[in-house]
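Per your request, structure below.
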């Protein structure tokens, strides 16, 4: 198999600038980054930012040796009024040369609570496929909210019926939202997993507690073995969201990202 891409989600640096995030991610030894463009949450890059700023961030990544392989562009895909916003996020992802765009199905952080049945949802997503093809992107649907198990997401991906639409398996969201164990649940959708948010989980199931990799109870070793057995070379994007109180400072985030890098290299992955 080809070398697996192993990157970091800039959302780890929620509340800090993209410049700080990029410098720290590169400093920890990573070469790939998932840029966050999540409206109302982490707007590290966003379609309404100036062209000068966006070019500046592109240049900064090039200087640091970071490849922006993915963009987190969450929109409520059940709300037809939000679909043009998502197309703009696709255009932004294309500007940065990304191969993947990540979205939850429902609204991740805004007040938009529009819902739709799976058939209408699949129709909405199928309507995005021409734009995905135009901009050379794969949409990876993130386990989140009511759509946080492999079996639920597999059904939606199969209804859409496009190679441009696959699953972003979030190894902690399945616990927090879906109440399932990632090491077991990946079996339900392995063939449709095209991307993983590597996120650890600590504390009670319903506690917002997502530490550095290896510091929680997600059974990554089993997940890694199952991916290898299935010859699934989907990219990894490390995501650390700490506790509800958040990290106390930038140094705490940096330490968690470095600890996650050490955990991955100890398990044989090249950054």
């Amino acid at each position: 198999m080809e070398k697996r891409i192993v990157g970091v989600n800039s959302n780890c640096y929620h509340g800090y600038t993209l410049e700080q995030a990029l410098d720290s991610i590169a400093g920890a030894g990573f070469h790939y980054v998932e840029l966050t463009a999540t409206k109302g949450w982490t707007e590290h890059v966003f379609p309404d930012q100036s062209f000068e700023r966006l070019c500046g961030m592109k240049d900064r990544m090039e200087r640091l040796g970071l490849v922006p392989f993915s963009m987190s562009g969450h929109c409520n895909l059940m709300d037809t009024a939000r679909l043009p916003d998502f197309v703009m996020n696709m255009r932004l992802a294309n500007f940065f040369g990304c191969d993947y765009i990540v979205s939850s199905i429902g609204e991740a952080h805004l007040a938009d609570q529009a819902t739709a049945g799976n058939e209408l949802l699949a129709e909405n997503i199928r309507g995005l496929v021409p734009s995905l093809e135009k901009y050379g992107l794969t949409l990876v649907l993130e386990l989140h909210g009511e759509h946080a198990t492999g079996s639920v997401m597999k059904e939606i991906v199969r209804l859409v019926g496009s190679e441009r639409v696959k699953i972003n398996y979030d190894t902690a969201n399945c616990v927090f939202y879906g109440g399932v164990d990632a090491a077991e649940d990946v079996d339900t959708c392995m063939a449709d997993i095209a991307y993983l948010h590597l996120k650890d989980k600590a504390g009670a199931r319903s506690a917002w507690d997502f530490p550095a990799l290896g510091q929680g109870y997600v059974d990554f070793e089993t997940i890694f073995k199952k991916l290898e057995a299935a010859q699934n070379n989907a990219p990894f994007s490390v995501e650390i969201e700490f506790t509800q109180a958040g990290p106390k400072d930038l140094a705490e985030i940096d330490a968690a990202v470095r600890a996650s890098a050490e955990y991955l290299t100890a398990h044989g992955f090249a950054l």
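Residues 6-266 form a domain with the TIM Barrel fold (CATH 3.20.20.150).

Regards,
D.
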